[in-house]
From TrEMBL:
<protein>
    <recommendedName>
        <fullName>Carboxy-S-adenosyl-L-methionine synthase</fullName>
        <ecNumber>2.1.3.-</ecNumber>
    </recommendedName>
</protein>
<keyword id="KW-0808">Transferase</keyword>
<feature type="domain" description="Methyltransferase">
    <location>
        <begin position="63"/>
        <end position="161"/>
    </location>
</feature>
<dbReference type="InterPro" id="IPR005271">
    <property type="entry name" value="CmoA"/>
</dbReference>
<comment type="function">
    <text>Catalyzes the conversion of S-adenosyl-L-methionine (SAM) to carboxy-S-adenosyl-L-methionine (Cx-SAM).</text>
</comment>
<comment type="subunit">
    <text>Homodimer.</text>
</comment>
<comment type="similarity">
    <text>Belongs to the class I-like SAM-binding methyltransferase superfamily. Cx-SAM synthase family.</text>
</comment>
<keyword id="KW-0949">S-adenosyl-L-methionine</keyword>
<feature type="binding site">
    <location>
        <position position="202"/>
    </location>
    <ligand>
        <name>S-adenosyl-L-methionine</name>
    </ligand>
</feature>
<feature type="binding site">
    <location>
        <begin position="67"/>
        <end position="69"/>
    </location>
    <ligand>
        <name>S-adenosyl-L-methionine</name>
    </ligand>
</feature>
<dbReference type="Pfam" id="PF13649">
    <property type="entry name" value="Methyltransf_25"/>
</dbReference>
<feature type="binding site">
    <location>
        <begin position="120"/>
        <end position="121"/>
    </location>
    <ligand>
        <name>S-adenosyl-L-methionine</name>
    </ligand>
</feature>
<dbReference type="InterPro" id="IPR029063">
    <property type="entry name" value="SAM-dependent_MTases_sf"/>
</dbReference>
<feature type="binding site">
    <location>
        <position position="135"/>
    </location>
    <ligand>
        <name>S-adenosyl-L-methionine</name>
    </ligand>
</feature>
<dbReference type="InterPro" id="IPR041698">
    <property type="entry name" value="Methyltransf_25"/>
</dbReference>
<feature type="binding site">
    <location>
        <position position="42"/>
    </location>
    <ligand>
        <name>S-adenosyl-L-methionine</name>
    </ligand>
</feature>
Length: 260
């Protein structure tokens, strides 16, 4: 497969019937452009992964990137941390994503320990991990499946481990939510999407991407066992949280990767 990446024009022509959004070959071919133009703060969140890992990741521990798509999380971490600092395991349900992620990571970071697996994060047999990244992935699971996954991730995290959870969110207050969604559509317009593209994609994502509120995320993290969670980033209706297992927060050493 070619490693070319195209401009996202998937919803740019009128469709008689808008199909449910899926991570197929067509989406994979334009995914870097699509996600950059559609997710406020995407680049900044990826750029912070290395800083969060430096502060919270046990040296040499496994890092899961769940719903890794093209492996952008792995690329960012490998760009910021030396090869011995972590072992990256990217997991994605879409075979087309996995193939491309493997090609990219093998080429771009040959010295790092990198694995990319095709799998469903709801049923994966997790090995112990020091850091788990869910960058805009939980939102695509059926809501009824989310809590069980979170419980399994908590169980897989080593004591002192950290979870990074980035999501499109819904504001509890209806007026606030409407304002955020309207400004989000302005953001997409400013990034070159037409009204028709915005509206057709919105239809395609109905019942596929189902956002929770920040309160729902915090409550679920608490019920899953996380002793502490913070919302560290929000731009419009997109946010990122960190959650800690046991002593991660108080043990964090500001000067170096943890060695325990
Ligand atoms: N059950 C599942 N199991 C595994 N993967 C899944 C599942 N359901 C969906 N996916 C995968 O989750 C990814 C979500 S995209 C993540 C971006 C990436 N994290 C990034 O930082 O570039 C977010 C977006 O497109 O908004 C897709 O690749 C799906 O195939
Ligand atoms: O484009 C949207 O409307 C979104 O909510 C973000 C997004 C980005 C990439 C794939 C699916 C949804």
């Amino acid at each position: 497969m070619s490693d070319a990446s195209y401009r996202d024009a998937i919803f740019s022509t009128p469709l008689d019937r808008v199909a449910r959004f899926s991570f197929d070959e067509q989406v994979v071919a334009c995914f870097p452009d699509m996600i950059r133009r559609s997710v406020p703060g995407y680049g900044q969140i990826l750029g912070m992964l290395g800083l969060i890992a430096r502060r919270h990741l046990r040296h040499g521990a496994r890092v899961y990137d769940l719903g890794c798509s093209l492996g952008a999380g792995g690329l960012s971490l490998a760009g910021q941390l030396p090869p011995e600092a972590f072992r990256y395991v990217g997991v994605d349900l879409s075979p087309a994503m996995v193939t491309r992620a493997r090609e990219t990571l093998d080429t771009e970071c040959p010295d790092h320990a990198i694995q990319v697996m095709e799998g469903d994060i709801r049923t994966l047999d997790y090995e112990p991990a020091g850091m788990i990244v869910l960058n805009f992935t939980l939102q695509f699971l059926p809501p009824a499946d989310r809590e069980a996954v979170m419980g399994r991730l908590f169980a897989a995290l080593e004591p002192g481990g950290v979870l990074v959870l980035s999501e499109k969110i819904r504001a509890e207050d209806e007026e606030e939510n409407a304002w955020l969604v309207e400004r989000y559509h302005d953001f997409k317009r400013a990034n070159g999407y037409s009204d028709m593209e915005i509206s057709q994609k919105r239809t395609a994502l109905e019942n596929v991407l189902v956002p929770d509120t920040l309160a729902e995320h915090h409550a679920r993290l608490g019920r899953s066992g996380f002793s502490r969670a913070h919302t560290w980033f929000q731009l419009l209706n997109f946010a990122s949280l960190v959650a800690f297992k046991d002593e991660a927060f108080k043990d964090a050493d500001p000067s170096a990767p943890r060695e325990d």
